[in-house]
Amino acid sequence: MDWSTYNAALPTVGVVNALGALIGLWVVYAIAQHMRRRAHCTPLASPPNPSFLFGIGRSLFKHPDPAAVYEQWAEKYGSVFRIPATLGYSRVVLCDPKAIQHFYSHETFLYQQTTLTKQSIESLVGRGVLWAEGESHKRQRKALTPAFSNAAIRRLTYIFFDSAYKIKTAWDSIIAAEGDDSAIIEVQAWMNHVSLDSIGIAGFSHDFGTLHGKHSTVAETFDSFSSLKPTLIGVAVFIVGLAFPRVMMRIPTAFRMLVKQLNASMSEVADDLLANTRKESEGEDKAEDKSIIGLLVKAESNQSDLHMSQDEVMAQMKVLILAGYETTSISLTWCLVELCKKPEIQAKLRSELSQISSGDPTWDQLTNGFPYLDAVVHETLRLHPPLGETTRIATEDAIIPLSTPLKTPTGTVVDNVSIAKGDIVTVPIHLMNSWPEIWGPDAREFNPERWLAEDGVPKKAQELQGHRHLLTFVDGPRICLGRGFALAEFKAVLSVLIRNYTFEFRDGPDTQIERVRGILPRPGVAGEKGAKIPLRVRRLE
Ligand code: HEM
Ligand SMILES: *[C@@H]1O[C@H](CO)[C@@H](O)[C@H](O)[C@H]1NC(C)=O
Ligand SMILES: *[C@@H]1O[C@H](CO)[C@@H](O)[C@H](O)[C@H]1NC(C)=O
Ligand SMILES: *[C@@H]1O[C@H](CO)[C@@H](O)[C@H](O)[C@H]1NC(C)=O
Ligand SMILES: CC(=O)N[C@H]1CO[C@H](CO)[C@@H](O)[C@@H]1O
């Protein structure tokens, strides 16, 4: 036995023991707190826990159709239930319209982002409106709202048509190069381009130029998120991160490196805009900036009560990219997928759009003039919400009202549910948008007609708040600020594409499409790598 080794080991053992004891105490304390709070909560039914470490989250994350899983639970356990989460914690799931209305209307105050989400948003886009809560959120939101008014979007509509024509120019030359009337085009990449370029120009007068084939670090960074593989280290970091979010944010995983890269390239764009807007307000000869952030910076110098710091302005620009780029691109891509699955719907849409005789429709015509286009767009948003769930933490004990009384596991029937401060609450957006219980037997089908028929949106669906009774843009204080922007862009781009081309799956009508994970899940061909949607695009004469 070597004594020196033994002696050196002693203090280490002591430290390890002390640490162990401390961690043990902390766990006991946390559990006691949890039990105390839980004591006055309404007992809720819950599926069995497959894994103490991961709870049900991992299997849900991997599942191709999470809405179907939530549906089974809701049918078995009622419209409010608990699901097991990481390390023995649980999440309360709300599938009751009144409960959901209560949840969204109290967002940013009673229900706030979990520490992990908050940290991720901050590292991605800074302390902008997506990050803020409570009064600070209210102030930022108030400052941003005028820049998203109908009048503002009306002035920006030509930008969406311009972007669509850039696709047309590019596609026409791809098709011409084939020496035919059609070509195979991976449309998801183009929907990314059209979405990013439009947000750049309309949002803050910056042309990313991806529709002209320009390389963009911002686009590339977003794309590389979807090719990240969940590594063992990544999973470990994730678990540590649940308990110690600050530690996680410092560990240089691939995700963190990408976040940094994104931050750097987005900051550059922000600096440009601010410099230009400042020149403009100093009276230098520049075309007037009507972009969303341009308007904002100008308004900012006038209304001191709405003053935003330079950091906040930068953060808002990044928020626009984060909130508007992928969401819009994913929706457009899903729409093309659905139109390939249902050629008769594609044809009907084309026939409505053929009424356009000359020139582009105005914003007002886009908004109200094409009922079938409107129905196709909303049916896409209903079935394919880019954000599938909202998850928040309750900052206080709360009583959640219900539309329909709930039978608890102890057999009593309650018309409200008590939860405790610290409870995590989830609204399954995808389920609420497509639940047969709410939308009727054809709820899972892509059927635009439902938006045009007399009783197409059933009474039960009408109980849901939110844009057109959908939760795709959520509801309440955090309802998507860019929904008018998104709808105008969606409709403008779709109208140009459908008038000029027909779309079919590369490998025929039976092609299976699945959800591929990224920052947000995207459509991709089943069994193929990456989120790619190769379509045969045929020119119309
Ligand atoms: C189809 C496209 C879109 C969908 C489905 C969508 C959906 C959403 C959702 C679900 C939220 C709430 C996020 C949360 O709860 O944390 C949100 C927030 C937001 N969206 Fe959108 N969005 C879309 C397009 C856009 C566009 C194009 C813009 C901007 C140009 C935009 C700007 C925003 C902003 C600024 C917020 C933050 C609002 C707040 O925190 O108060 N969105 N969006
Ligand atoms: C993001 O970039 C800005 C400016 O370049 C910098 O000040 C900030 O620290 C960066 N944030 C992160 C999380 O990298
Ligand atoms: C700001 O105020 C000046 C005069 O004080 C006015 O000319 C300008 O239109 C205002 N700008 C905005 C964006 O309200
Ligand atoms: C909640 O429900 C219980 C019984 O189900 C009722 O006694 C109580 O008044 C309700 N509370 C609220 C705030 O609605
Ligand atoms: C052949 C055809 O219909 N071309 C149309 C392409 O789209 C533009 C703008 O939407 C129309 O002006 C063309 O007539």
From TrEMBL:
Gene Ontology MF annotations: heme binding; iron ion binding; monooxygenase activity; oxidoreductase activity, acting on paired donors, with incorporation or reduction of molecular oxygen
Q: Record keywords: Metal-binding included?
A: yes
Gene3D superfamilies in the record? Cytochrome P450
**CDD domains xref list:** CYP_FUM15-like (cd11069)
Q: Which UniProt keywords apply?
A: Heme, Iron, Membrane, Metal-binding, Monooxygenase, Oxidoreductase, Transmembrane, Transmembrane helix
Query: According to its UniProt record, in which pathway does this protein act?
Result: Secondary metabolite biosynthesis
Please give the start and end residues of each transmembrane region: 12-32, 231-249
Provide the residue positions that the database annotates as binding heme: C480
An example Pfam family from this entry, by short name, is p450
What cofactors does this protein use? heme
Protein family (similarity comment): Belongs to the cytochrome P450 family.
| Name this protein carries in UniProt | Cytochrome P450
